[in-house]
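Students often ask why we bother encoding 3D structure as a string. The short answer is that it lets us treat folding as translation between two languages. Here is a chain of 346 residues written in the first language.
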Amino acid sequence: MIFDIAALIFSHRYLILEHGKIRFNIKRRYISCGFFMRFTFKQLRYFDAALRTGSIAKAAVEQNISQSSITAAIDLIEKTTDSELLRRMPAKGIVPTELGVEVGARVQQFLEQVRIFESDVLSITGDPAGTLKLGCYAPTAPYILPPILKRIAQDYPEISIDLREGDMQSISEQLNNGMVDLALTYRRETPDTQPFAPMFRATPVALIPDASPLAQQESVSLEDLAEHPMVLLDLPGTQAYFSGLFQAHGLRPNIVHRTKSSSVLRGLVAANFGYAIMNICGPNDRSEGNGYIPRPIRGDLDAPQYGVAYTQASHRSALVKAVLKTCEEISSLGEFDHLLVSSSPD
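And here it is in the second language, the structure alphabet:
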């Protein structure tokens, strides 16, 4: 059930939103919602959690509530709609019916509108406030998130961050489905029409085992690397990119191991199973005793932009504008420069 904003009425001490059977009273940054219908916000959230997780037990853990409360919410919404929305399947959890998928999408959209509305209202009388759902490409999270979260905590203490990590493909899908407000990611997996605020270009860098003869060189070429075994970070979109670096020069990498973990990748490189290519080189990657050493790659290379992806709809939120401004300021101050390695000329 979706409720559009019908009227915003400002008075001296209250902001009142009325539409049909819903009434919001906002006073001194506190929102109270009075419902004159048969289910509440909490019950809608419980239903949404069950649909997303496909499990009453998982939904209960996520919402920190009893399983009986989740079940009661589902039963009430099904009774209200006079329809079966979620089928309980033994050993398979719960599966939505065709109508359940449609109702679930509307519930999710409504909850998202309420969340954005609440944060925007809280921002009227002061700095942006509320919860922002932030997605981040997992391999880059340890390096990109700390300075951003620290600055947000300093400048906007009323903003809380709900972090979501994943590969570039899943983060992009979550952004376009409204599951996250912003996504810290590479430009590679975002459509050209997707609004994107770049923060830096990430030139590929090789992580070379200490035991490799290539470690004695100040820089390496793709021709050098193609002759040695490679450990590949194998996430959606990464193989096409890393292989494309070589293919653009008529070469083919010798991939001997694949992993979805950047930590495992570094461990395999340190154990001399092969070199790896990354786009971000953290401070620990430059430390002695790791078992590997970063080396610039010579030549003209595809260096993707890294930044913040968002949607036109989310950009209307005061929270999103504040965090975009924070990311822009941090980037302009060069706080990510230590993560980058410049390519060497031929």
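Translate back mentally: The CA atoms of residues 142 and 246 lie 28 Å apart. Keep this in mind for the problem set.
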